[in-house]
Please model this.
Amino acid sequence: MDKLQSNGEDWSNTQEKEEEDKLRHFYLTNKLSDTLDSLLEAYKRMLGKGDIEGLLLVDSDGKALAKSRSFRIKNAWNAGALGAALAGVARQVEKYLGADEFQNAMVMYKSKQLYVCKISDLNEDKSLLLLIFANERANIGFIRAKMNQYVKRIEEDIKNNESIRKTIEISEEQIEDILNRLDAAVIREKD
Model:
């Protein structure tokens, strides 16, 4: 069977590349991105500095739902998985200590920090997490407090966005497939 050609390029490769681009960008910049951008703008307005490198909204399985538009990240799904893993470790500590419900977890380095905060429950099994990637000077307490003003807006945006709801519902097998395809795309970009 002949492959369709488009400008001398194999059509199936073009279609595959377009699909990868959708995976990389579609789930990440959407109406939720506007809300995350508003949160960042409020931070910059109040504190007069841009210590936050980016915000990433994920579910507790690590599925990337949205990112702030200025956040330059190669693979938000992998970053989402790291944030969800950090939240998972924190939930295990919660059980070990007999503590109340998980709220926040942070990893700090000399010049960077990753902060994960639970902002709401999506259902009985899943939570909505905000990942904050920042430098060492960021006022995480301020952005966490400000986040409370945006929770209802984010929940409403999710409720009204079918593609985000579908992302939340995808299976682990589908996640693995997406991550493998994204990793392959990143490797091809390096070549």
